[in-house]
Design a protein that fits this description.
single chain, 165 residues, alpha+beta, CRO Repressor, four-stranded antiparallel β-sheet, transmembrane, transmembrane helix, UPF0702_alpha/beta_dom_sf
């Protein structure tokens, strides 16, 4: 029973730590992130099994983790609040062609990341062409393009503002 309790504690701690890492970290695994995951897996393996490396204990720990994951999926499906706590909510980064800098800073997202998402998913080259850029709970950035007319109006406004300086 000790192994089940340890599995529960480790599972909860890792979920909390990964939530604190931010959405983008989980979407784009860098070499450093991969190394971190490998080290975490090694450290948690020791904490999960303790001194008992038997097949029975390993099966018990794996079964516990799978059941915890399944229970979390069911809770997320039935409880919006639980889903919001564990997965977060989508966050608008660009609204009507304007960057929401406080949100970009909070999530550690560069303007270039938004523009890369716009180019790769919609073929858009300028911020004025983006109606909304949304940081999804998965860490990806969804782009909703502005209508052609709106994008042209925004570009003209931008040029007028630049010329007025």
């Amino acid at each position: 029973m000790d192994s089940v309790f340890r599995a529960l504690i480790i599972y909860l701690v890792i979920v909390v730590l990964f939530r604190m890492m931010g959405k983008r970290t989980m979407a784009e695994l860098s070499t450093i992130d991969l190394v971190l995951l490998l080290i975490i897996s090694e450290a948690t393996q020791q904490a999960l099994l303790g001194d008992d490396f038997s097949v029975t204990t390993s099966i018990l720990v794996v079964a516990t983790l799978v059941l915890l994951d399944r229970a979390a999926d069911i809770l997320k499906f039935h409880s919006r609040g639980f889903s919001k706590v564990t997965e977060g909510t989508p966050l608008v980064l660009v609204q009507h062609g304007r960057l929401l800098m406080d949100r970009l800073r909070k999530e550690h997202i560069a303007v270039e990341d938004v523009l890369v998402a716009a180019r790769s998913s919609q073929g858009l080259l300028k911020l004025e062409q983006i109606e909304y850029a949304i940081l999804e709970t998965s860490g990806t950035i969804s782009i909703i393009p502005a209508s052609e007319r709106t994008a042209l109006d925004r570009e003209a406004d931008h040029r007028d503002t630049d010329e007025g300086r």
